[in-house]
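Action item from last week, closing it out:
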Amino acid sequence: MTTGRGQDVAGGTCAQMVAGLGSSHGDDRAGWVLAEMLAECCPPGVSVFAVRTPLDVLSRIRQDVWFHLIDACDAGRKPGTLLRWSSTASDWSAEPNTVPQIVAACRAATTHDMDCLSVLELARRLQQFPRGLTVWMIQGRCFEPMSAMSAEVTGALPQAAEAVLQELNGRSARAAEG
């Protein structure tokens, strides 16, 4: 899965990008599963892909898009809780230290990877930060290697997909209006 319907990733015509960050470790699959769900029904102009590490995002991120990052987190909330945070490029540049705890809760896949905050800050410094950024985090319960997703997270995925899809559709409609 690298894209949803109606997208031209190679040609670069997408207005929004969705990266599902994850691994095969329990609830950390949530980003991948949500990306798969969204790829089936997202509006035209949305590129959807899965990544294994936050650093993988750096090669895909573009200045001219609204970028959505989806990941599982351990932010101390009830498992299955969907958290959302959004920023524009100018807001991030002006106040990079005001990023909330949910973004800091994005977990690196291994100790050798950069975390999401570091990758997003690197994108800003390289002048690759997207026009806007929305981070979607789903609170996980189980991150053990090769374990199944928890029932709480699995049960929350359809509602989480609907929330992300609603925002994707809204942004697409506003872009079409001019």
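Closing note: The chain has one domain: 16-177.
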